[in-house]
Amino acid sequence: METGKIIKAAGACMLIGMGLAGTAQAKDDKYPSQPINIVVPFAPGGGNDLLAREIGMRLTKTMGQTVVVENQPGAGGELGARSVARAKPDGYTLLMMSNSAVSGAAFNPNTPYDVVKDFASVALVARIPLALAISNEVPAKTVPEFIKLLKEAPDKYNYGSPGQGTVLHASALLFLGTTGTNMEHIPFKGAAPIVTEIIAGRLEATFGAVNSMLPAMKAGQLRLLAIGSKERSAQLPEVPTMSESGVEGYDVDVWYGITAPAGTPPEILKRLNTEIAAVMRDPELKEKLAGMGMETFDIEPPEQMDKIVAQDFALWSKVLKDERPAP
Predict the structure, then answer these.
(1) pLDDT per residue over 38-86, tens digit each?
(2) Does domain 129-227 have CATH number 1.10.3300.10?
(3) Is 33-127+254-319 a CATH 3.40.190.150 domain?
(4) What are the angstrom distances between the C-alpha of 254 and each of 57, 103, 217, 299?
(5) Measured distance CA(41)–CA(116) in Å, rounded
(6) How many CA atoms lie within 13 A of 78 on its CB side?
Protein backbone atom coordinates (compact mmCIF):
# COMPACT_ATOMS: atom_id res chain seq x y z
CA MET A 1 0.00 0.00 0.00
CA GLU A 2 1.31 3.45 -0.82
CA THR A 3 2.42 5.72 2.01
CA GLY A 4 -0.31 8.30 1.31
CA LYS A 5 -3.03 5.66 1.45
CA ILE A 6 -1.67 4.34 4.77
CA ILE A 7 -1.80 7.82 6.27
CA LYS A 8 -5.35 8.38 5.00
CA ALA A 9 -6.50 5.00 6.39
CA ALA A 10 -4.92 5.75 9.77
CA GLY A 11 -6.55 9.15 9.82
CA ALA A 12 -9.91 7.65 9.00
CA CYS A 13 -9.56 5.14 11.87
CA MET A 14 -8.69 7.95 14.27
CA LEU A 15 -11.75 9.93 13.21
CA ILE A 16 -14.00 6.91 13.64
CA GLY A 17 -12.50 6.22 17.08
CA MET A 18 -12.96 9.83 18.11
CA GLY A 19 -16.52 9.73 16.85
CA LEU A 20 -17.32 6.59 18.86
CA ALA A 21 -15.72 8.04 21.98
CA GLY A 22 -17.67 11.24 21.52
CA THR A 23 -20.89 9.28 21.13
CA ALA A 24 -20.19 7.30 24.30
CA GLN A 25 -19.33 10.49 26.17
CA ALA A 26 -22.48 12.17 24.96
CA LYS A 27 -24.49 9.15 26.10
CA ASP A 28 -22.89 9.25 29.58
CA ASP A 29 -23.45 12.99 29.84
CA LYS A 30 -27.21 12.53 29.38
CA TYR A 31 -27.56 10.75 32.73
CA PRO A 32 -29.71 11.63 34.50
CA SER A 33 -32.29 12.79 31.97
CA GLN A 34 -35.35 11.97 34.12
CA PRO A 35 -36.25 11.71 37.82
CA ILE A 36 -34.49 9.09 39.93
CA ASN A 37 -36.44 6.92 42.38
CA ILE A 38 -34.97 5.69 45.65
CA VAL A 39 -37.14 2.84 46.93
CA VAL A 40 -37.36 2.50 50.70
CA PRO A 41 -38.79 -0.95 51.46
CA PHE A 42 -40.44 0.19 54.69
CA ALA A 43 -43.09 2.68 55.79
CA PRO A 44 -42.23 6.40 56.13
CA GLY A 45 -40.59 7.63 59.31
CA GLY A 46 -37.95 4.98 59.90
CA GLY A 47 -34.20 5.50 59.86
CA ASN A 48 -33.72 4.29 56.29
CA ASP A 49 -36.59 6.51 55.09
CA LEU A 50 -35.22 9.64 56.77
CA LEU A 51 -31.72 8.89 55.46
CA ALA A 52 -33.00 8.38 51.90
CA ARG A 53 -34.89 11.68 52.02
CA GLU A 54 -31.88 13.64 53.28
CA ILE A 55 -29.67 12.18 50.55
CA GLY A 56 -32.34 12.52 47.86
CA MET A 57 -32.99 16.17 48.66
CA ARG A 58 -29.32 16.99 48.23
CA LEU A 59 -28.86 14.88 45.08
CA THR A 60 -31.77 16.74 43.52
CA LYS A 61 -29.73 19.92 43.81
CA THR A 62 -26.43 18.49 42.61
CA MET A 63 -27.63 16.21 39.79
CA GLY A 64 -30.16 18.54 38.17
CA GLN A 65 -33.00 16.00 38.35
CA THR A 66 -35.61 15.31 41.00
CA VAL A 67 -34.77 12.39 43.27
CA VAL A 68 -37.99 10.86 44.59
CA VAL A 69 -38.20 8.64 47.67
CA GLU A 70 -40.81 5.93 47.16
CA ASN A 71 -41.92 3.83 50.14
CA GLN A 72 -42.80 0.24 49.27
CA PRO A 73 -43.35 -1.54 52.60
CA GLY A 74 -44.31 -5.18 52.99
CA ALA A 75 -42.98 -8.66 53.76
CA GLY A 76 -40.23 -7.32 56.00
CA GLY A 77 -38.71 -5.24 53.20
CA GLU A 78 -38.83 -7.97 50.53
CA LEU A 79 -41.49 -6.31 48.36
CA GLY A 80 -39.53 -3.12 47.81
CA ALA A 81 -36.25 -4.95 47.29
CA ARG A 82 -37.85 -7.32 44.79
CA SER A 83 -39.26 -4.41 42.76
CA VAL A 84 -35.78 -2.88 42.47
CA ALA A 85 -34.15 -6.22 41.61
CA ARG A 86 -36.62 -6.54 38.72
CA ALA A 87 -36.42 -2.92 37.57
CA LYS A 88 -34.70 -1.77 34.40
CA PRO A 89 -30.97 -1.40 35.13
CA ASP A 90 -30.68 2.17 33.88
CA GLY A 91 -29.83 4.05 37.07
CA TYR A 92 -33.31 5.47 37.61
CA THR A 93 -34.46 2.97 40.24
CA LEU A 94 -32.34 2.58 43.37
CA LEU A 95 -32.80 0.81 46.71
CA MET A 96 -32.00 2.04 50.20
CA MET A 97 -30.73 -1.26 51.58
CA SER A 98 -29.77 -2.21 55.13
CA ASN A 99 -27.90 -5.26 56.31
CA SER A 100 -31.19 -6.69 57.60
CA ALA A 101 -31.97 -7.30 53.92
CA VAL A 102 -28.82 -9.42 53.76
CA SER A 103 -29.50 -11.35 56.98
CA GLY A 104 -33.14 -11.75 55.95
CA ALA A 105 -32.11 -13.32 52.65
CA ALA A 106 -29.71 -15.63 54.49
CA PHE A 107 -32.53 -16.65 56.84
CA ASN A 108 -35.32 -17.14 54.31
CA PRO A 109 -34.65 -19.68 51.53
CA ASN A 110 -37.74 -18.39 49.72
CA THR A 111 -36.49 -14.81 49.34
CA PRO A 112 -37.62 -13.76 45.83
CA TYR A 113 -34.20 -12.44 44.80
CA ASP A 114 -30.51 -13.15 45.21
CA VAL A 115 -29.23 -10.41 47.50
CA VAL A 116 -25.66 -10.88 46.22
CA LYS A 117 -26.26 -11.33 42.47
CA ASP A 118 -29.42 -9.31 41.73
CA PHE A 119 -28.12 -5.92 42.88
CA ALA A 120 -25.26 -3.65 41.84
CA SER A 121 -23.86 -1.66 44.76
CA VAL A 122 -23.55 2.12 44.63
CA ALA A 123 -22.26 3.09 48.07
CA LEU A 124 -22.40 2.36 51.79
CA VAL A 125 -23.61 5.62 53.30
CA ALA A 126 -24.22 5.34 57.06
CA ARG A 127 -24.35 3.08 60.06
CA ILE A 128 -25.96 2.94 63.47
CA PRO A 129 -23.84 1.34 66.20
CA LEU A 130 -25.28 -1.85 67.67
CA ALA A 131 -25.03 -2.62 71.37
CA LEU A 132 -25.74 -5.35 73.89
CA ALA A 133 -28.21 -3.98 76.44
CA ILE A 134 -29.45 -5.70 79.58
CA SER A 135 -32.09 -5.06 82.22
CA ASN A 136 -31.09 -3.43 85.49
CA GLU A 137 -32.47 -6.61 87.11
CA VAL A 138 -29.63 -8.66 85.63
CA PRO A 139 -26.68 -8.74 88.09
CA ALA A 140 -23.92 -8.01 85.57
CA LYS A 141 -21.97 -4.85 84.85
CA THR A 142 -19.66 -6.19 82.13
CA VAL A 143 -19.80 -8.64 79.23
CA PRO A 144 -17.60 -11.23 81.03
CA GLU A 145 -19.92 -11.08 84.05
CA PHE A 146 -22.95 -11.52 81.76
CA ILE A 147 -21.37 -14.49 79.98
CA LYS A 148 -20.64 -16.07 83.38
CA LEU A 149 -24.32 -15.73 84.35
CA LEU A 150 -25.46 -17.31 81.08
CA LYS A 151 -23.14 -20.27 81.56
CA GLU A 152 -24.20 -20.78 85.16
CA ALA A 153 -27.91 -20.73 84.26
CA PRO A 154 -28.23 -21.57 80.53
CA ASP A 155 -32.06 -21.73 80.54
CA LYS A 156 -32.78 -18.73 82.73
CA TYR A 157 -32.28 -15.69 80.50
CA ASN A 158 -34.03 -14.39 77.39
CA TYR A 159 -33.45 -11.73 74.74
CA GLY A 160 -35.66 -9.82 72.36
CA SER A 161 -35.27 -8.87 68.69
CA PRO A 162 -37.49 -7.20 66.07
CA GLY A 163 -38.02 -10.60 64.44
CA GLN A 164 -36.36 -13.72 63.09
CA GLY A 165 -33.77 -13.12 60.42
CA THR A 166 -33.23 -9.45 61.24
CA VAL A 167 -29.63 -8.39 61.71
CA LEU A 168 -30.38 -7.80 65.40
CA HIS A 169 -31.55 -11.41 65.77
CA ALA A 170 -28.52 -12.63 63.81
CA SER A 171 -26.13 -10.53 65.89
CA ALA A 172 -27.48 -12.11 69.08
CA LEU A 173 -27.00 -15.61 67.65
CA LEU A 174 -23.45 -14.68 66.65
CA PHE A 175 -22.74 -13.61 70.23
CA LEU A 176 -24.25 -16.79 71.68
CA GLY A 177 -22.38 -19.01 69.24
CA THR A 178 -19.07 -17.22 69.79
CA THR A 179 -19.33 -17.36 73.59
CA GLY A 180 -20.88 -20.84 73.86
CA THR A 181 -23.93 -19.56 75.71
CA ASN A 182 -27.70 -19.76 75.32
CA MET A 183 -30.75 -17.52 75.77
CA GLU A 184 -34.38 -17.88 74.78
CA HIS A 185 -35.34 -15.74 71.78
CA ILE A 186 -38.51 -13.65 72.03
CA PRO A 187 -39.40 -11.88 68.76
CA PHE A 188 -41.19 -8.50 68.82
CA LYS A 189 -42.66 -6.20 66.21
CA GLY A 190 -40.18 -3.33 66.33
CA ALA A 191 -37.61 -1.98 68.77
CA ALA A 192 -39.83 0.20 70.99
CA PRO A 193 -41.62 -2.65 72.82
CA ILE A 194 -38.28 -4.39 73.43
CA VAL A 195 -36.93 -1.38 75.30
CA THR A 196 -40.19 -1.13 77.27
CA GLU A 197 -39.95 -4.79 78.34
CA ILE A 198 -36.30 -4.45 79.36
CA ILE A 199 -37.08 -1.40 81.47
CA ALA A 200 -39.94 -3.32 83.12
CA GLY A 201 -37.60 -6.24 83.87
CA ARG A 202 -39.68 -8.76 81.89
CA LEU A 203 -36.92 -9.12 79.26
CA GLU A 204 -33.28 -9.60 80.20
CA ALA A 205 -31.34 -8.56 77.11
CA THR A 206 -31.31 -7.37 73.54
CA PHE A 207 -28.91 -6.54 70.75
CA GLY A 208 -30.22 -3.27 69.37
CA ALA A 209 -29.44 -0.09 67.53
CA VAL A 210 -27.94 2.40 69.97
CA ASN A 211 -30.26 5.24 68.94
CA SER A 212 -33.34 3.25 70.04
CA MET A 213 -31.87 2.62 73.51
CA LEU A 214 -29.89 5.78 74.24
CA PRO A 215 -32.67 7.73 76.04
CA ALA A 216 -33.36 4.79 78.38
CA MET A 217 -29.66 4.32 79.03
CA LYS A 218 -29.16 8.00 79.87
CA ALA A 219 -32.14 7.78 82.23
CA GLY A 220 -30.52 4.83 83.99
CA GLN A 221 -33.32 2.46 82.96
CA LEU A 222 -31.07 -0.15 81.31
CA ARG A 223 -27.37 -0.92 80.86
CA LEU A 224 -25.34 -0.95 77.67
CA LEU A 225 -22.55 -3.47 78.17
CA ALA A 226 -20.73 -3.25 74.84
CA ILE A 227 -20.74 -1.82 71.33
CA GLY A 228 -20.88 -4.38 68.52
CA SER A 229 -18.50 -2.73 66.06
CA LYS A 230 -14.72 -3.04 66.20
CA GLU A 231 -14.33 0.61 67.17
CA ARG A 232 -16.01 2.55 69.97
CA SER A 233 -18.96 4.74 69.08
CA ALA A 234 -18.47 8.49 68.92
CA GLN A 235 -21.84 8.79 70.68
CA LEU A 236 -20.79 6.55 73.58
CA PRO A 237 -17.00 6.64 73.84
CA GLU A 238 -17.14 5.28 77.39
CA VAL A 239 -18.79 1.99 76.32
CA PRO A 240 -16.25 -0.72 75.38
CA THR A 241 -16.46 -2.82 72.23
CA MET A 242 -17.24 -6.54 72.21
CA SER A 243 -13.64 -7.30 71.27
CA GLU A 244 -12.36 -5.20 74.16
CA SER A 245 -14.75 -7.15 76.39
CA GLY A 246 -13.29 -10.50 75.38
CA VAL A 247 -15.54 -11.50 72.46
CA GLU A 248 -12.78 -11.60 69.87
CA GLY A 249 -13.62 -10.84 66.25
CA TYR A 250 -17.16 -9.63 66.94
CA ASP A 251 -17.89 -6.76 64.54
CA VAL A 252 -21.53 -5.96 63.76
CA ASP A 253 -23.47 -2.75 63.30
CA VAL A 254 -26.57 -1.66 61.39
CA TRP A 255 -25.48 -0.33 58.01
CA TYR A 256 -27.32 1.40 55.18
CA GLY A 257 -26.30 1.53 51.54
CA ILE A 258 -27.69 2.42 48.14
CA THR A 259 -27.90 -0.23 45.44
CA ALA A 260 -29.23 -0.55 41.89
CA PRO A 261 -30.46 -3.49 39.81
CA ALA A 262 -27.74 -5.85 38.57
CA GLY A 263 -26.62 -4.89 35.09
CA THR A 264 -26.64 -1.13 35.71
CA PRO A 265 -23.79 0.34 33.59
CA PRO A 266 -20.57 0.84 35.59
CA GLU A 267 -20.29 4.47 34.47
CA ILE A 268 -23.70 5.21 36.00
CA LEU A 269 -22.76 3.47 39.26
CA LYS A 270 -19.55 5.48 39.37
CA ARG A 271 -21.41 8.75 38.70
CA LEU A 272 -23.89 8.02 41.48
CA ASN A 273 -21.09 6.99 43.82
CA THR A 274 -19.23 10.24 43.15
CA GLU A 275 -22.34 12.38 43.65
CA ILE A 276 -23.27 10.58 46.88
CA ALA A 277 -19.72 10.92 48.19
CA ALA A 278 -19.93 14.68 47.74
CA VAL A 279 -23.30 14.80 49.49
CA MET A 280 -22.11 12.72 52.45
CA ARG A 281 -19.21 15.11 53.07
CA ASP A 282 -21.67 17.90 53.86
CA PRO A 283 -21.06 18.92 57.52
CA GLU A 284 -24.72 19.91 57.90
CA LEU A 285 -25.84 16.43 56.82
CA LYS A 286 -23.31 14.75 59.12
CA GLU A 287 -24.61 16.79 62.05
CA LYS A 288 -28.23 16.04 61.20
CA LEU A 289 -27.59 12.31 60.90
CA ALA A 290 -25.64 12.32 64.16
CA GLY A 291 -28.76 13.71 65.80
CA MET A 292 -30.58 10.62 64.48
CA GLY A 293 -27.92 8.33 65.94
CA MET A 294 -26.22 7.67 62.60
CA GLU A 295 -22.55 7.85 61.69
CA THR A 296 -21.56 8.42 58.06
CA PHE A 297 -19.11 6.29 56.11
CA ASP A 298 -16.22 7.63 54.09
CA ILE A 299 -17.59 6.69 50.68
CA GLU A 300 -15.58 4.01 48.90
CA PRO A 301 -15.99 2.60 45.37
CA PRO A 302 -19.08 0.43 44.67
CA GLU A 303 -16.96 -2.72 44.71
CA GLN A 304 -16.37 -2.27 48.45
CA MET A 305 -20.09 -2.53 49.20
CA ASP A 306 -20.32 -5.57 46.90
CA LYS A 307 -17.62 -7.19 49.01
CA ILE A 308 -19.34 -6.40 52.31
CA VAL A 309 -22.73 -7.68 51.10
CA ALA A 310 -21.13 -10.96 50.01
CA GLN A 311 -19.19 -11.31 53.28
CA ASP A 312 -22.26 -10.56 55.40
CA PHE A 313 -24.40 -13.01 53.43
CA ALA A 314 -21.82 -15.76 53.97
CA LEU A 315 -21.59 -14.96 57.70
CA TRP A 316 -25.35 -14.79 58.33
CA SER A 317 -25.99 -17.91 56.26
CA LYS A 318 -23.72 -19.78 58.64
CA VAL A 319 -25.11 -18.17 61.80
CA LEU A 320 -28.77 -18.61 60.83
CA LYS A 321 -28.60 -22.07 59.23
CA ASP A 322 -30.32 -23.79 62.18
CA GLU A 323 -33.01 -21.10 62.45
CA ARG A 324 -34.32 -21.20 58.88
CA PRO A 325 -37.91 -22.12 58.11
CA ALA A 326 -38.51 -25.08 55.79
CA PRO A 327 -38.19 -24.19 52.06
Answers:
(1) 999 998 988 899 999 999 999 999 999 999 999 999 888 999 999 999 9
(2) no
(3) yes
(4) 23, 11, 19, 16
(5) 17
(6) 16
